[in-house]
């Protein structure tokens, strides 16, 4: 998945990249921002910035084994690794759902897909 | 009467003159007749004249004389009655019974009665005033006696107090001498303490200086230890840096070994070098550990030294503080000693002055003691005089009571009034007994009231429990016969009027009393005597 | 900036002794990693935790411009926790089969040395990631098979 650029956001302490093309809306809410994508609204804590290009690498099996979430890939921005979000299947952390892993972050049960 | 007598005498003289004249005339006529040969008619005329004169004399003079003798006789009889009445009245007056005297005097005629009554009244008033005054005098004498007794007692106590004060002052003087001696000794000791304080102050100041010096040195040591600590921290940083380098070198050697292993045969020599580098890094690490251990020991020693110097510094500060406190205490002690020495000297001087003053006071007190003693003696005499005055007052009262007056102060009047009451109840002994019981309550000074019959037998007797209290009535006073020989009984019967006895001691209370005894007559016969025992103490307090 | 896959995934080393292992401290265990699977030993890289990850995945790190998942070696081998490491390291290694290996980072407490561990001396093991145990010097080490890490799920 590649695009003309990516919106870089922070959620749960981690850095995430969302294809600009997949962004449908952006508004304040829920203590941060609500990013509208194909799959619905993503909850983000902070907007870091926008980049035009990212060297996206595929998600490795080792990562998938220990982080069973769908992702668009991995990349690095300003020496910090980030996960590229699949707008059709965003990770639970961005949807505000309790994840299967124990990351210790605040969770909120929600019926949103 | 005298006028009538004089008139009668004049008439008699006139009569005699007429008769004399007639007689002379007759004589003259006879002579003339005889001489001149007068006629018998002259003689007849003379006889007629004479007869006429005589008849006139009889009618005028003789009858008058008769009337006069009658009148004189009547007057003499009346005078006798008056004299008798007057004598009786004067007898009652002599007896002091002004009441009976006044009653008798009413029987005197005319002006004599009024004049006597006036005189009796004046005497009655005077006696009443004397009685009243005697009561006041007795009361005042009693009060004076009491006051004199109190004064005498107080004066004696005062004299005793002065003696005590004198003794105390003498003791005080002795104590003051001892205090003066002690004060002088105290002054010496305080002076010595002051000198010791000076020496102590110097010593403490030297000690304080020494401790200050030690504290400074300890501070210097602590400062240098601090510096060493800082340096060792820097060395630790260097060691950390070296450790970092050694670790990096170790990692580098591992990576070199990895690369060498990947290069295979070509990398064999490189792997040796890598292994050497790894060992070098290991040795460096071990050296660093060695140095770190040494530095740890050094740092521990430094810390121990710092702690020790810190404690030493604190201890030195405490010692310094205590030394300063000691210096301050010594200074205070020195000041106190100086003050004590000054005060002791002042005390010594003051007590010496006090000694002199005490001696004067003792002398003065002795003089006061003499004066007080003389006062006490004088008061004692005054008390005796007051006692005599009291007795005189009593005597005056008794004398005043010798008059029977129609007055509440007159005991004779009281006795006779009560006797009248008893006479009304004669024959009813129970009524008399009740009456006596009632009467004795009316007068708080009547100790005992009793009635004896005409033969001296006791009919009724009652005592005043307010005066007697719980005392028993002695057998000599209880009912019996033979009281007719008692002086009061005999005197009352003899006088036929109320009498007062002299003072004597009561058998009931053993206090001075006197008796007022009133005889009671019924149809001229003695039916008994009523007696009142008057308690002098209670009587004079009224 | 894109980097070449070649640079991202260099060819596996050749000529390595099958017994060459890198000994690392993971908790209270000493683990032996096949040297051919090890690319680099580094001072512990900064790790960015990933929400929703299991305990074995510490997070992501950046190495040579590339994202690198960092796994906790002590948790992977089930080692009891040891003392706080003084100099923790990240071992950059290849995991998975030869034809599809991936680069991962293994967080260890310390990198010890390179030692020879004859495979014949390896005993025990679950046939998976932990090959077994073998004596090295006066200690027993757990020999790991990083190729099996990619296979297991």
Through-space gap between termini of chain B: 55 Å
Domain tally of chain A: 1
Quaternary status: heterotrimer
How many separate helices of chain B? Answer: 10
H/E element sequence of chain B: HHHHHHHEEHHEEEEH
Percent helix of chain A: under 10%
Largest sheet of chain A: 5 strands, mixed
Write up this protein.
The complex is a heterotrimer of chains A (113), B (542) and C (153). By secondary structure, chain A is mainly β. Chain A has 2 helices and 8 strands; from the N terminus they run ββββββαββα. In chain A, 42% of the residues are buried. The radius of gyration of chain B is 70 Å and the shape is rod-shaped. In chain B, strands 1, 2, 3, 4, 5 and 6 form a 6-stranded antiparallel beta sheet that branches. In chain B, helix 1 runs antiparallel to helix 2. With 542 residues, chain B is an alpha+beta fold. Chain C has 3 helices and 10 strands, in the order αβββββαβββββα. Chain C has a 5-stranded mixed beta sheet. The longest helix of chain C is centred in the C-terminal third of the chain and has 6 residues, at 146-151. The chains are: A mainly beta (113), B alpha+beta (542), C mainly beta (153). The A-C interface holds A 11-15, 53, 55, 57, 60-63, 65-67, 69, 74-76, 79-83, 91-93, 99-103, 105 and C 1-3, 8, 48-57, 59-62, 65-69, 71, 95-96, 100, 102-104, 149-150, 152-153.
Keywords:
heterotrimer; B: 542 residues; alpha+beta; Beta-Lactamase; six-stranded antiparallel beta sheet; 10 helices; 6 strands; C: 153 residues; mainly beta; 10% helix; globular
